[in-house]
Write a structure and sequence with these properties.
This protein is of the alpha+beta class. 24% of the residues lie in helices and 24% in strands. The structure holds ligand MIG.
Length: 683
């Protein structure tokens, strides 16, 4: 460990972001590895940010940036840290919902990491302008820059977690299958969805409630006609081993007499305009005020708002729209109307007419609007939002987690958020936003996951089946096959898209069988998750982390190391009944069809074409390692601690350290941390 170091360099006067838990003294000497220079505004001659740059050799590989489009290796594109409600995750997009400003640089004789703790806009030109150069520009110019050095990619990743703190621990039931859909609007509908799952023996642990459960989309309310007795309904669901997981949006409806608005106003908990009046913008409930999550008192107030739902027995939430997403502000909309009315006087100006489209499109989450409002820190300092924009969702997560802790400090609650920033990984998980029912978005998830883990976000997942657009049966099947391994295994889809619950399809039995594999693997997945979380490790890793000396492995983009034993390689192409897989060492393939139906094939290091029928998917186990496979179960409560088969290659030595705790206590109790199983299986 001797060679591991983290150095902090301070520029200007940065805001405390809560990203870092290890407070290091700032260095004064020369910055290693990078060139740092001020960005000069050519017009005014004044400084407007800082540029960091470094040269890249052709072999250099870049990992990091968490939730971004494109590859595991981030080289060859540009990205912008600017949290955005982006509805289309195409490969030209520079920003999604989160900013995870960590980058690891790995090449011959070269290994270091950089982390910019800066919640403003940052551009990452990673070989875009020039293939051999990385240029990173912080617009704020006020930031802490960290340079991380270590002996391996894995060691640097661990160092980064020492710096930023331990990852969030979800309850064990959160590893169950979760069904979600924008549109479930009543108890009756949810009862029916649960009933269908139970009828078909499709395992299920949770149902997400989207904005439809609320009274006119107002946070912390529920429609009394559709949910007449929430507490009784929660209890009924619990008896069915189902957890209800309601959504909470960032904006608070600006409606007189609506309690969260009234109490928030009294507490001074909302973001303000320059003159001190409340900033307002429209989102789902209409005009809203926006909680000032950067303020401790406002966070405490917001956390308290969850109480009625917690008291009704709810133990999981998802936080949405927290980039924050703004449909429009009145000012911006009025300007667009003015422009349109002006345009109406010039019917012959076709170009102007055409441009109206973009004028109206530009009303949503307009950069100008993010410059209109202010936060107030605990020290009373006012900060304009755009300088700390990327913190908003992360601090909402912090507020929510604080609310949970105040309600019951002994209990683990499920929480996942759409928007995030490093630091939020200590308080919750994330889902990776509005993907589409596209084959390419399967692969995108495989590429995002390890970088999310690298940045600390272990509990995450994508919308299985795809959020937008109409799924096809085979795509959902392949999505579920990936989902088997994701900590958050959630089927979610948008309003007005094709019904996407497993029981809607002719292949319901096949899909059910796929989900049974998940439940058989929960003891393993939960163990590996907990080990990763408690040792500051990663559950999913690019192959380069485990095989840095194997240049082939370092270039693999569509396979992932999973836990201490495994590798996954999902099929991401329609009508492909198989795929090429690179094995960086000898491995045993488990070709699953269900928890009890699979074949075992031992394969040697190298390239293989693996045949995988639509209902088949592989898990590769490293030689000399073993994984426990339990029995199928219909909910996590019935996943037991025994009856495993131990699957691995060499039968003489069969051991696996199972992590067992009660799965719900805030401070995990290691009941039987080392459970050595000795039931040989394999060949
Ligand atoms: O403007 O609550 O990403 O999962 O279903 C869309 C409705 C708002 C966006 C989330 C999505 C959710 C949807 N929300």
């Amino acid at each position: 460990m001797g060679k591991n170091t983290i150095r902090r360099y301070r520029f200007g006067n940065p805001t405390d972001t809560d990203a870092v838990v290890l407070k290091l003294p700032a260095e004064t000497g020369e910055i290693p590895r990078l060139k740092a220079e001020p960005v000069i505004d050519p017009e005014t001659g004044s400084e407007k940010g800082i540029r960091f740059s470094f040269g890249m050799d052709p072999e250099d590989i870049l990992f990091g940036l968490g939730e971004t489009v494109r590859g595991q290796n981030k080289r060859g594109h540009r990205y912008t840290a600017w949290n955005t409600d982006e509805v289309s995750h195409t490969e030209d997009k520079q920003s999604l919902y989160a900013s995870h400003n960590l980058l690891l640089i790995f090449g011959p004789g070269k290994l270091f990491g950089i982390f910019l703790d800066d919640p403003g806009r940052i551009t990452w030109d990673l070989g875009y302008t020039r293939q051999d150069q990385a240029v990173i520009v912080s617009e704020n110019g006020d930031l802490d820059l960290y340079i991380l050095e270590g002996e391996s990619l894995t060691e640097i990743a661990r160092e980064f977690r020492h710096l930023t703190g331990r990852s969030y621990l979800p309850p064990r039931w959160a590893f169950g299958y979760i069904q979600s859909r924008w549109g479930y609007a009543s108890e009756e509908e949810i009862r029916q969805v649960v009933g269908e799952h139970r009828k078909w023996h499709i395992p299920l642990d949770g149902i997400c409630m989207d904005i439809d459960y609320m009274e006119r989309f107002r946070d912390f309310t529920w429609r009394k006609d559709a949910f007449p007795d929430m507490k009784a309904f929660v209890r009924e669901m619990q008896e069915n081993h189902i957890h209800l997981i309601p959504i909470i949006d960032a904006g608070i409806a600006r409606v007189e007499g609506y309690e969260p608005y009234e109490t928030g106003r009294e507490r001074g908990a909302f973001c303000t305009l320059e003159d001190g009046s409340a900033f307002e913008a429209a989102v789902w409930p209409g005009l809203c005020c926006f909680p000032d999550f950067l303020n401790g008192d406002a966070r405490e107030w917001f956390g308290e708002q969850y109480r009625p739902l917690l008291e009704a027995g709810i133990d999981g939430f998802w936080n949405d729209m927290n980039e924050p997403s703004l449909f429009y502000t009145k000012e911006r909309l009025n300007k667009a109307f003015e422009k349109a009315m002006e345009q109406q006087k010039h019917p012959e100006d076709y170009e102007g007419m055409w441009n109206l489209k973009s004028v109206f499109n530009g009303v949503e989450s307009n950069p100008e609007d993010y410059r209109l409002f202010y936060h107030r820190t605990d020290d009373g300092e006012r900060i304009r939002h755009d300088r700390v924009h990327n913190l908003y969702g992360a601090q909402m997560t912090r507020a929510t987690a604080g609310g949970f802790r105040a309600f019951d400090p002994e209990h683990r609650f499920l929480l996942f958020s759409r928007s995030s920033y490093v630091g939020a990984h200590r308080n919750g998980g994330v889902w990776m936003g509005d993907n589409r029912s596209w084959w390419s978005h399967l692969e995108l998830a495989v590429q995002m996951l390890p970088n999310m883990n690298l940045c600390g976000f272990l509990y995450c997942g994508c919308d299985l089946g795809g959020f937008a657009g109409d799924v096809t049966e085979d795509l959902l099947e392949r999505f579920l096959q990936l989902g088997v391994f994701l900590p958050l295994m959630r089927n979610h889809s948008a309003l007005y898209t094709r019904d996407q619950e497993v029981y809607r399809f002719s292949t319901v039995e096949t899909m059910r069988n796929t989900i049974t594999v998940r439940y058989a693997l929960i003891p393993y997945l939960y163990s590996e998750f907990m080990k990763a979380a408690l040792t500051d490790g990663m559950l999913f890793r690019p192959l380069a982390f485990d095989y840095p000396a194997d240049p082939r492995a370092c270039r693999v983009e569509d396979q992932l190391m999973l836990g201490g034993e495994c590798m996954i390689a999902p099929v991401c192409r329609q009508n492909a009944w198989g795929r090429y897989v690179y094995l960086p060492e000898d491995m045993l393939m488990i070709r699953f069809r269900s928890a009890s139906d699979y074949d075992l094939v031992s394969l040697e290091k190298g390239d293989h074409y693996i045949e995988l029928k639509p209902e088949e998917f592989p898990l590769f186990v490293k030689r000399g390692r073993f994984i426990p496979l339990g029995a199928a179960a219909e909910y996590t409560d019935s996943v037991t601690g025994d009856g495993f088969r131990l699957i691995g290659w060499d039968a003489e030595k069969t051991e696996y350290a199972l992590y067992a705790d009660d799965g719900i206590s805030a401070t995990p109790v290691y009941e039987e941390h080392l459970k050595i199983l000795r039931e040989g299986f394999g060949q």
